[in-house]
UniProtKB/TrEMBL annotation:
<dbReference type="GO" id="GO:0016020">
    <property type="term" value="C:membrane"/>
</dbReference>
<feature type="transmembrane region" description="Helical">
    <location>
        <begin position="295"/>
        <end position="318"/>
    </location>
</feature>
<feature type="domain" description="TMEM181 GOLD">
    <location>
        <begin position="125"/>
        <end position="248"/>
    </location>
</feature>
<dbReference type="Pfam" id="PF21885">
    <property type="entry name" value="TMEM181_GOLD"/>
</dbReference>
<feature type="transmembrane region" description="Helical">
    <location>
        <begin position="73"/>
        <end position="94"/>
    </location>
</feature>
<keyword id="KW-0812">Transmembrane</keyword>
<feature type="domain" description="Wntless-like transmembrane">
    <location>
        <begin position="249"/>
        <end position="391"/>
    </location>
</feature>
<dbReference type="GO" id="GO:0015643">
    <property type="term" value="F:toxic substance binding"/>
</dbReference>
<feature type="transmembrane region" description="Helical">
    <location>
        <begin position="257"/>
        <end position="275"/>
    </location>
</feature>
<feature type="transmembrane region" description="Helical">
    <location>
        <begin position="357"/>
        <end position="376"/>
    </location>
</feature>
<dbReference type="InterPro" id="IPR054077">
    <property type="entry name" value="TMEM181_GOLD"/>
</dbReference>
<dbReference type="InterPro" id="IPR040416">
    <property type="entry name" value="TMEM181"/>
</dbReference>
<keyword id="KW-0472">Membrane</keyword>
<protein>
    <recommendedName>
        <fullName>Transmembrane protein 181</fullName>
    </recommendedName>
</protein>
<dbReference type="InterPro" id="IPR047843">
    <property type="entry name" value="WLS-like_TM"/>
</dbReference>
<keyword id="KW-1133">Transmembrane helix</keyword>
<feature type="transmembrane region" description="Helical">
    <location>
        <begin position="324"/>
        <end position="345"/>
    </location>
</feature>
Length: 397
């Protein structure tokens, strides 16, 4: 029995309501790349989004960060940049950090009778100078020297020479009191410090003559003498010697004290508010960010140094070293925080030996080196005003 089938003609694609057009080669490849990237991001997203195996979900204390909308995010960032811009504006419009005055070495030249002494005065000295008026808010004093020559040769000159410094403080009765060198302790503590004179053409680099870390007197009488520049003077002719007196601006010091007080006050308030907010939750339920904030906020309070005013009233190394210690501890604490948070994205088991100890091994030497070097420099500068850490690199090493 034969059966016959009739074939229907193909229908027009336009009558079906849709059509398919093969995309171009570059467009297709671009879409496939985006699809692969989306799949890769979806695989990685489960490690950074709140999930059951993270401590950022329901089994930890809920953070306000995860429920903020776009408007609240914009408000937070706007407030941050407003405060940041206000700080920059105060810094630009406020007083300069330091004040500086200068005196020419030729104006300090005494009346001499011998021509040799007059000719080599700028290469030898002695330069007897009286510092400007200094107050407690001036904090510290630097004396910086700059030498100008008649050198026209196309060469760099690096000359090693020595300086000796004698310091006397003027009391309220204008009586000189030995502070360093000279007749102080029978003159036994006079030291010749080594300095390097680097010159290019006529200009020579500045070098620090002395640094007084605490000001006991309103005025100082400083006597500076050079040794070993006579041959340099005969060849290149020292044209002038300028001495610069540099100290902190008292107006800036007052602003610094107020800013430190305001930051200490606000940090204390925020720390108390943070502790009050989380007091009803057990610490085991805190997220890693909340645990670290409970450490960083007290460190920030110490970073602003509540005992900062002691620097102006105590002639001792203790306040300066405490300030350096607290600042170093806070910065190393931030480094430890970021190491733990970034590693904690993929690490849920945070035992001390496997999670925190390797990071402590990385951060602790940095903290120890910074503290030791800070204490070393503070103590040496208070004991010896002519001390320079640039010349003390061998002891550092």
């Amino acid at each position: 029995m034969a059966s016959s089938t009739t074939s229907k003609p193909p229908e027009d694609a336009s009558k079906l309501g849709y059509s398919y057009v093969t995309p171009a080669g570059m467009c297709l490849r671009f879409r496939q790349s985006l699809a692969q990237f989306s799949d890769l991001f979806s695989e990685f997203n489960k490690y950074i989004a709140p999930a059951y195996h993270h401590d950022r979900c329901e089994r930890s204390v809920h953070m306000r960060l995860y429920s903020m909308n776009k408007r609240e995010f914009a408000t937070v960032f706007l407030a941050f940049f407003a405060c940041f811009g206000l700080g920059i504006f105060i810094g630009l419009a406020g007083p300069p950090i330091t004040v500086m005055s200068k005196v020419s070495g030729s104006s300090l030249q005494p009346n001499v009778s011998t021509s040799d002494t007059a000719t080599n005065y700028l290469a030898r000295g002695p330069f007897v100078m009286r510092t400007p008026l200094l107050t407690t808010y001036s904090q510290q004093l630097w004396i910086i020297a700059k030498i100008t020559t008649d050198n026209t040769d196309d060469e760099m000159v690096d000359k090693k020479f020595h300086i000796s410094v004698q310091i006397e403080g003027l009391t309220a009765e204008h009586k000189p009191m030995p502070v360093y060198g000279g007749t102080h302790n029978g003159g036994a503590d006079v030291k010749n410090r080594t300095r390097h004179l680097s010159c290019s053409y006529e200009e020579c680099d500045e070098f620090t003559v002395l640094h007084i870390g605490f000001l006991d007197y309103a005025h100082y009488i400083v006597t500076v003498q050079f040794y070993g520049l006579e041959a340099f003077h005969q060849r290149y002719n020292i044209r002038s010697v300028q001495f610069y007196f540099k100290s902190y601006n008292p107006a800036f010091t007052q602003i610094e004290i107020w800013f430190r007080f305001i930051f200490v006050l606000f940090t204390f308030i925020i720390t108390c508010w943070f502790a009050h907010t989380l007091r009803k939750y057990p610490m085991n339920d805190w997220s890693i960010e909340q645990k670290w904030l409970s450490i960083l906020l007290p460190l920030l309070l110490l970073f602003n140094n509540p005992i900062f005013p002691l620097i102006f009233i105590a002639n001792t190394w203790f306040p300066g070293i405490i300030d350096a210690l607290l600042q170093t501890t806070f910065l190393c604490g931030i480094l430890m925080f970021w190491l733990c948070v970034y590693h904690g994205l993929r690490q849920n088991e945070r035992k001390f030996l496997t999670f925190y100890l390797p990071k402590l091994i990385v951060v602790l030497p940095i903290w120890l080196c910074a503290v030791v070097l800070g204490i070393w420099e503070k103590c040496d500068e208070l004991n010896d005003p002519t001390y320079s850490h640039f010349e003390d690199s061998e002891n550092y090493n």
